[in-house]
Amino acid sequence: MVAADRRAVLVTGGAGYVGSHAAKALRQAGYHIVIYDNLSAGHRAAALGAPVIQGDVGDTDAVRRAIRESGAASVMHFAAWLSVADSVRDPIGYYRNNVAGTLATLEAMAAEGCRHFVFSSSCAVYGEPVETPISETHPTAPINAYGQTKLAIEHALPHFERAYGMTSIRLRYFNAAGADPAGELGEDHSPEIHVIPRAFQAASGGPPLDVFGEDYPTPDGTCLRDYIHVTDLADAHVKALARLEQGGASATYNIGTERPSSVKDVIAAVERVTGRPVMRRSAPRRPGDPAALYASAQRIRQDLGWTPARPDLDTIVRDAWQWHSTHPHGFGDRP
Ligand SMILES: NC(=O)c1ccc[n+]([C@@H]2O[C@H](COP(=O)([O-])OP(=O)(O)OC[C@H]3O[C@@H](n4cnc5c(N)ncnc54)[C@H](O)[C@@H]3O)[C@@H](O)[C@H]2O)c1
Question: What distance separates the 2 farthest-apart alpha carbons in the chain?
Answer without folding.
Answer: 60
